[in-house]
Amino acid sequence: MKNTATIFTICVASLLGLGLVMLYSASMTQEGEKLLIKQSIFAAIGLVACFVAASLDYRRLRKFVWPGLVVVCLLLAFTAVMGREINGARRWIEFHGFTFQPSELAKVVVIAMLAHYACVYRERMHEFWRGVVIPGAFAGCAMGLVLAGKDFGTTMLLGLVVWLMLLIAGARPMHLVPLGLAGFAVICVLLMGNENRRTRIDAWLHPEKYEKTIAHQQLQAKYALGIGGTAGLGLGNGRQKTGFVPEHPTDFIFSILGEELGLAATLGLLVTYGLLCWCGLSIAWRAGDLFGQLLVIGLTFLIGVQVFINIGVVTMVLPNKGLSLPFISYGGSNLVMLLASAGLILSVARRAVQTPLVASTLLEDNPFSVGPRTRTT
């Protein structure tokens, strides 16, 4: 387990270092070192949060999940009404020149809440009301408030992570599949009812019709990846960042990395993310209790799914969602919470056991649940 935790730490440190380098390269022609200085400050705060979270006993977190959920919902409600509006969405609380996204905190709190809930009701997670409706309602309060701020991307991301966690925790697939389909249908209705996002979907399906407007960003990002080729143009030599790819320090920084460092670097980045997720699941496998298992699984899913969506958007596999690339994109709230999440995963690793945990008889019978199944004689 020590080796796994070490590899996990190296992956996080490598991604963080690469992110700072690429952020400066992406913003040097327009912002100079301004974004790098801000991101470095957030990285320092995040590293402190990571160290504190890794040092503390993660099991103490269970005492704060319900108050934390209430605080998060209040912050999200305030943001939806009074938050700063950017590109039609209210996601940010502004304070003395710095902005904070409560939705980033909501991701971690909802995951911790579900892990705690599954521990308390582990023997009843197979029931429809106790295993799906009630935890889904608690998580739905936070997701609904995120959606009220018109943050569709984070809502879908969090919804998928919640669905996966309930499945792993022991909820029956026959209960979760209709719920997932209903949630997907609601999102589709809301998307089709919003002209801006409906046009984004159409631009994704028919980019040639919108190559100078809505599809411009994704098309230019795709061109940047093609221009980079195998070896890239060289660090700092990218041309698409000079105004061709909007939001290149944030949602589309992967395209700048591909243009300047080439296919070899992008593949290396994907391998690093894959290794980080593998380490996370390995830590969950050896966790000392069910709460630790589900907490690490939820946080690992959160990182992995966000990577998939971000790169899917840049490569035009998915429509534009507005999600950042973990540890790489510019964004203080996201970076601080990601590093704090890494600290929680390391806290679980520090208290891991040599023999993989068998959670309960119920979870042993669930083919989707965490922990190995044993056969009694």
Plain-language structure description:
- The chain is mainly alpha-helical and 377 residues long.
- The protein has one domain (2-365).
- Helix content is 66%, strand content 3%.
- It has 13 helices and three strands; from the N terminus they run αααβββαααααααααα.
- A hairpin with a 2-residue loop joins strand 1 and strand 2 (89-95).
- Helix 4 (102-120) runs antiparallel to helix 5 (128-148), helix 4 (102-120) runs parallel beside helix 12 and helix 10 (253-285) runs antiparallel to helix 11 (290-314).
- The chain starts with a helix and ends in a 12-residue tail after the last helix.
- The relative contact order is 0.16.
Task: List SSEs in N-to-C order.
Answer: HHHEEEHHHHHHHHHH
Distance separating the two termini: 30 Å
The general outline is globular
* Largest sheet descriptor: 3 strands, antiparallel
- List segments where confidence is low: pLDDT < 50 over at least 5 consecutive residues: 359-377
Integer-rounded radius of gyration: 21 Å
Helix tally?
A: 13
- The percent range for strand residues is under 5%
Strand order of the largest sheet: 1-2-3
Report the mean per-residue pLDDT as an integer.
84
* Secondary-structure-derived class: mainly alpha
Overall number of domains: 1
Relative helix content? 55-70%
Task: Write down how many β-strands occur, each being a DSSP E stretch of 2 or more residues.
Answer: 3
